[in-house]
Amino acid sequence: VLPGSADAAGQRATLGVMGGGQLGRMFVHAAQRLGYFTVVLDPDAQSPAGLVSHHHIQTDYGDPAGLAQLSQQCQAITTEFENVPAQALQALAQTRPVAPGAAVVGIAQNRIEEKAHFTACADVSGVSCGPYAVIETPAQLQAVPADLLPGILKTARLGYDGKGQVRVRTAAELAAAWAGLGGVACVLEKLLPLSAECSVLVARGWDGQVVGFAPQRNVHVDGILAVTHAYEGNLPPALASRARDAAVAIAQQLGYVGVLCVEFFVVDDGSAHGALVVNEMAPRPHNSGHYTLDACDVSQFDLQVRAMAGLPLPLPRQHSPAIMLNLLGEVWLDEHGQRREPNWPAVLGLPGTHLHLYGKAQARAGRKMGHLTITGPDVVSVRTVAQRAAALLG
Ligand code: ADP
Ligand code: MG
Known about the structure:
Layout: E1 14-18, H1 22-33, E2 37-41, E3 55-57, H2 64-73, E4 76-79, H3 86-93, H4 102-108, H5 111-120, H6 122-125, E5 132-135, H7 138-142, E6 151-155, E7 165-168, H8 171-180, E8 186-190, E9 194-204, E10 210-212, E11 216-221, E12 224-230, H9 237-254, E13 258-267, E14 275-282, H10 292-295, H11 300-309, E15 322-328, H12 344-348, E16 353-357, E17 368-375, H13 379-393
Parallel strand pairs: 1-2, 1-4, 2-3
Antiparallel strand pairs: 5-8, 6-7, 6-8, 9-10, 9-11, 9-13, 11-12, 12-15, 13-14, 15-17, 16-17
Helix pairs in contact: 1-11, 3-4
This protein binds adenosine-5'-diphosphate (ADP) and magnesium ion (MG).
Residues 263, 280 line the site of magnesium ion.
């Protein structure tokens, strides 16, 4: 789909996205900058992406009429969150290129399948999952090896930002937690001593070409990403290159098309740099890649647009060290839970601050409202500004 083109019937080059959250919004911005028209399918009238898109189809993700309208209004389709029904992507793929495809999104939607894929390509990727057990039946619950405890019980489907997860110490707690989650399909992961977390974003085209960003180091608080460190020296170089190679291998083995994020744990195993373990993947751009908007010549959203449209995928170049601070609803809430406006003039008065707000009206604790990226000439100045910004927002 060439940017700015029109077909014989006069329809302007248009890209579609399933889902209207902040990732969809930043996708829309990137697509529009290249001259594409955009269409967002999302049931929410006030969705962050729907608010900025040329067209917004306001139906459920599985609605046949909505899906038909989407494929009619655009020439290629992507997704911005992994819980779009795989069947919907399959239906769209009958008439339009869909990237990533239903099969790979289906794998990423299910922790059991995701881990099976990581295990199947461990020989090529060089990285395995941490110890875990699948729990789909009471018999499997009974058979859980004791050495997986203490652990984290995670629902196989529909978890995000630490939701659908329960920490358990004993077999009795595990049984209660599984019952509490409704006895749905789960995985129990051994609780690992993490010395760090990192993620890698890669983009793969229809022709199999893969490009990627350097690995980011991520800090999570209560299961939600809080800070991303993106600069040279953020991780031991040997570890970073292993993570990058593993992410490329995982994307290749999936036959993936689009932007893929692979999350890793660095486990403290007594060795100098720790052991790399693959955690999960997201079939879309990722919160940990938001810094690429301000610190790289091509962002993760630019690559998403290019990959789905069949345009060239240049190797991104990061031109500035960066730190990204996630802005959760708490930033807008005082100690009584009343809304307050953050001191944006002070924050934006700091050098190298880039504010991104997602257009969400309601601030709730834990809700991703926006992010702030800090770029600068060197790591020390970026760190200093990030600390000042964090203090102003705290
Ligand atoms: P989500 O889909 O919510 O991102 P994750 O599996 O990535 O779920 O878990 C969220 C966070 O919880 C991780 O980034 C990490 O900080 C912590 N966590 C998850 N699993 C483990 C584990 N097995 N051991 C230690 N910490 C974990
Ligand atoms: Mg995660």
